[in-house]
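Question: I have long wanted to understand how a fold can be written as tokens. Here is the record:
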Amino acid sequence: MIAPLSIPSPDYEWQIWEINLFGWQLNIHMYALCILVGIVLAVVMTSRRLTRRGAEPGVVLDIALWAVPLGIIGARIYHVLTHPDDYFFEGANVWNPFQPGAIWNIWEGGNAIYGALIGGAVGAWIGCRMTGIRFWSFADALAPGLLVAQAAGRLGNWFNHELFGLPTDLPWGLEIESSNPAFPAGLADGTLFHPTFLYEIIWNLAGAALIILLERRINLRWGKAFAVYLIWYGLGRSFFEAIRVDPSEMFLGVRVNVWTSWAAVILGIVLFLLQRRRHTGDEPTPYVPGREWKGPDAEVDSDETESDSDSLDDGVEGENSTGETAATSSSRSTSA
């Protein structure tokens, strides 16, 4: 029996929007749209935060051109490697992107955030090297926006009817149709499940707010804000992952993503303590030494300084000339 406050899954018609353009059909997947919205939110938030710290406006886009594509590639590779049974079996369509189930079809779901972090970190490092931005400065500016982006992406899992948790009697249980391939065998029709997508959305948004509030009280520069992100997300994800029912690779009886979550927590703690000891002061600039952006005001100031210097030189020359003339005149008068 469905609980009064249970969360219904969206109609399957919401998964894909079909748009006809001049006889050509364009399919827009809600999952992909949610990821795109998350990317836009992360870029906007990161850009505003980094610009306030002294970076050139728009420099985040130069970094995102590397980080986003490599993040998406990393997310897909990690998912495929941790869910090999979903893609590599007899008769499976692995390579053809025009058929369902291919490893390239990211719009069908299956993008792992930990793979996105690894691939995105490589892309961000390349982008930071090219723009002169400190990698940890970018990571700190990104931290809350990354959590907001992940929250938006989790909404896509809801549209795809996927990644739900264990059965529950809680009133806010998620409704999943028994015809769903991921529906556990042996359970009755109408069984409710933990809405792990909603849990993670709330957890991620709370984490973004926490980082922003902590920054007002303590120094979270030099990679420490990103360390808080790793700790917060790793703790939450380790729990949400443990109650999911979808199949995943196991190691020593524990899901691989749980191990990865614990590794993220440990990495975050080590990074925070290490950077806290190495960098006790504030971050003077988000740029590496020698590659600072001086801004348009600096150019104007430079021109004005040069103009003032020229005027000063002219004045000094005029003063010297006047002095010499006066001295010469006085000499002639005395001589006469």
Q: What stands out?
A: Helices lie at 30-52, 59-82, 113-131, 135-159, 196-215, 224-242, 256-278, 295-335. The chain has two domains: 14-278, 301-336.
